[in-house]
Amino acid sequence: MMSRTYWIAFLLALIGLAPWVGVQAQSGTPVIRSFTVDQVPELVPGTELVFRVGGSAGGSLQLDIDGVASPLGLTETSAGMYAGAYTISIRDKVRHDSRVLATLRLDGRQTTVALSQTLLTAEAHARASAPAPVPVQISRIETRNTGALTGGHVISFIVDATPGGLAMVSLDGGKSTIPLTEERTGRYIGRYTVKTRDQFSDATLAQFSLVLADKTMRAAKPLGSGAVTPVAQAAPVEPAPAPACDGCGVVVSVNTVKVKGKPNYVGAIAGGVAGAALGNQVGKGDGRTLATVLGAVGGAVAGREVEKQVRSDTRYDLTVKLDNGTTRVVSYDANPGLAVGTKVRFDGELLRVRD
User: Fold this and answer.
1) Phi, psi at residue 113, to the nearest 5°?
2) pTM of the model
3) For the chain, where are the alpha helices, taking DSSP H only?
4) What is the C-alpha to C-alpha distance for residues 306 and 43, in angstroms, rounded to an integer?
5) Distance CA 162, CA 185 (A)
6) What is the number of other CB atoms lying within 10 angstroms of the CB of residue 12?
7) How many helices (H) does the chain have, and how many strands (E)?
8) Does residue 203 register a pLDDT over 70?
9) Mean pLDDT confidence for 282-288
10) Do 208 and 138 contact (CB within 8 A), yes or no?
11) What CA–CA distances, in Å, run from 81 to 61, 107, 118, 311?
């Protein structure tokens, strides 16, 4: 009897716990299964960012975007699928590496996941992530020597400049070139033993060069012993301009000209025959003969003029302004298909399109 009572109590306890177990299962930690963004080519004011999140249904989802002051709430468009868009304003400071966090809240619990995609497309993100070019500069130059600037004495050069470059110093207008070694970051050192043929003085200029990537920086100072010359600014050497292209230019006008065609004798003969026939109908005797002749002559002339109009052609005159400031006109019997603004070059008398 006692055992039966215990079993009944146990069953009642299980029945009472069943709803509570179900509630615990439903109110577990929410899950975010996917988090994506439609990547964009640039992050400028007016750009729209579209986000989508997949996870537990029935929750409340919010995004926090670095550089945006207020969070963005996403709408549950279908069970467990959340979506929303944000348009970048002029007040925002969204960068290519801005972090985006999605937080899903459900029944007092929450889960936060970071966006694994970049906001920019892969190509645009790579450009934005590229390191800024290092400015090439020479900030300090020092020269030392062991005594007079005569044969056998040693001149030392110490240069503080942008690290990672190729440095050298030239004396006597480049007759003597001394490579400098970067003995520590940003400090270049070199030495030169004076030859008996050298004609140095304290006023002799030492020309310093620093090459880094595609940039070259140059500066100079006298050889005066122990002198230190800080270099505030030294302009980079600009690459030499590309050689001028002879015969290169651009099309500045395309004119269509109507040209009368060259007649042959078909029109004249046909016109003469028609004129003679018409003249033959006028007058009698000698008068008829004269009218026939005049009709033939007039008809031939008229026939040739009509044929000129019928056989008229179209000519295309292109005016090209050359890079040297002059202009040339080229004529074509057929449309060459070159619009105003097309870059061209002359190859002899032929006109070709250039890049």
Assistant:
1) -130, 140
2) 0.40
3) 2-26, 122-129, 265-279, 286-310
4) 68
5) 8
6) 10
7) 4, 20
8) yes
9) 50
10) yes
11) 10, 17, 21, 74
